[in-house]
């Protein structure tokens, strides 16, 4: 490819840029966002060759555009390039929920462009910004693409090749499946981690709790250090699937509370053993 354009050169966009540069996947990578200092930093770190604050300037002549802003900004970005992007240009994204991105693209273009390939790398960190970008972030991680019936298969193949160049394994899912599965595996754990830290932060012994916290609290709360804008947007744009999971979780927590309250040691042992078996069976 000649030119790749990345909107939002933070952790996800910056990591993609670094990986593609390492493999010489394209001749030039152009960054675009609203924040000049982020773009300058991305250029200093060697993630992008050049940058502009003008979306049309960035998108013009691009072979591929990657959207790596928070999901709530995707519609505005698409609207800003809608009149200046070639029909041949492949557009893809890394947003954490997919129905909202498909809806945003339909609103921006009037219909989902055939060469728009919704995507989501299942890799990341609780740190955001290009300073935390890493060329190896996607190695041996899955990337989910959620094309619809009208998506051009050659665009899907090109996006697949791009991710495989970064060392990722690409899999296809439909949009609804993606949003439900990710609500369970990623969005619920983040909501729980934020709630856990909020719970602890409002207890009397908060300073002692942080002082004496070892692996348990650190591991369970790690993702509460994630970017609040990103997670605000995900909760807004995958609302229904997340609420379904929080409701199931609340029921399970209540059953657990009842077992503890009743001193039901057999019940507790069975529940913990079942959960451990399920987790060990998949993650070892
Ligand atoms: N962080 C993760 O672990 C992770 C993993 C997979 C997918 N994602 C998704 O990737 C996307 C980016 O996340 P990130 O962690 O790289 O965030 P980040 O904060 O590191 O980077 C986001 C970038 O977008 C830019 N930006 C914000 N609003 C913009 C706008 N209106 N127009 C143009 N640029 C704008 C910011 O300047 C920033 O450089 C999000 O949609 C997120 O849901 C994140
Ligand atoms: O490892 C982490 O810190 C992450 O939060 C990564 C993680 C996840 O939940 O697994 C976060 C959001 C994504 O959209 C994909 C990956």
From TrEMBL:
EC number, as in UniProt: 1.3.1.12
Annotated GO MF terms: NAD+ binding; prephenate dehydrogenase (NAD+) activity; prephenate dehydrogenase (NADP+) activity
Pfam families: PDH_C, PDH_N
InterPro entries referenced in this protein's UniProt entry, alphabetically: 6-PGluconate_DH-like_C_sf, NAD(P)-bd_dom_sf, PDH_C, PDH_N, Preph/Arog_dehydrog, Prephen_DH
Keyword NAD attributed: yes
Enzyme class: oxidoreductase
Keywords, sorted A to Z: Amino-acid biosynthesis, Aromatic amino acid biosynthesis, NAD, Oxidoreductase, Tyrosine biosynthesis
Family classification: Belongs to the prephenate/arogenate dehydrogenase family.
Keyword Metal-binding appears in the UniProt entry: no
Gene Ontology process terms (BP): tyrosine biosynthetic process
Catalytic activity: prephenate + NAD(+) = 3-(4-hydroxyphenyl)pyruvate + CO2 + NADH
Signal peptide coordinates: none
Name of the protein in question: prephenate dehydrogenase
């Amino acid at each position: 490819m000649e030119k790749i354009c990345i909107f939002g050169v933070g952790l996800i966009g910056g990591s993609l840029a670094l990986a593609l540069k390492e493999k010489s996947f394209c001749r030039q990578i152009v960054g675009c966002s609203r924040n000049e200092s982020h773009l300058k930093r991305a250029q200093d770190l060697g993630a992008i060759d050049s940058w502009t604050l003008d979306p049309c300037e960035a998108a013009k002549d691009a072979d591929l555009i990657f959207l790596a802003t928070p999901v709530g900004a995707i519609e505005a970005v698409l609207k800003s390039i809608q009149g200046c992007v070639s029909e041949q240009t492949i557009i893809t994204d890394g947003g954490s929920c997919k129905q909202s991105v498909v809806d945003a693209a339909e609103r921006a273009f009037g219909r989902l462009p055939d060469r728009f390939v919704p995507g989501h790398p299942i890799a990341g960190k609780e740190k955001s910004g290009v300073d935390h970008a890493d060329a190896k972030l996607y190695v041996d991680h899955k990337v989910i693409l959620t094309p619809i019936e009208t998506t051009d298969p050659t665009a899907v193949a090109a996006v697949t090749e791009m991710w495989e160049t970064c060392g990722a394994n690409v899999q296809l899912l439909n949009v609804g499946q993606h949003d439900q599965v990710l609500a369970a595996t990623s969005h619920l754990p983040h909501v729980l981690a934020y709630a856990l830290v909020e719970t602890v932060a409002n207890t009397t012994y908060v300073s002692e709790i942080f002082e004496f916290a070892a692996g348990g609290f650190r591991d369970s709360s790690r993702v509460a250090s994630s970017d609040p804008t990103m997670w605000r947007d995900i909760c807004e744009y995958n609302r229904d699937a997340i609420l379904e999971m929080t409701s199931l979780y609340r029921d399970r927590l209540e059953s657990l509370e009842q077992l503890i309250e009743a001193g039901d040691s057999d019940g507790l042992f069975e529940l913990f053993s079942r959960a451990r078996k399920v987790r060990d069976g998949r993650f070892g």
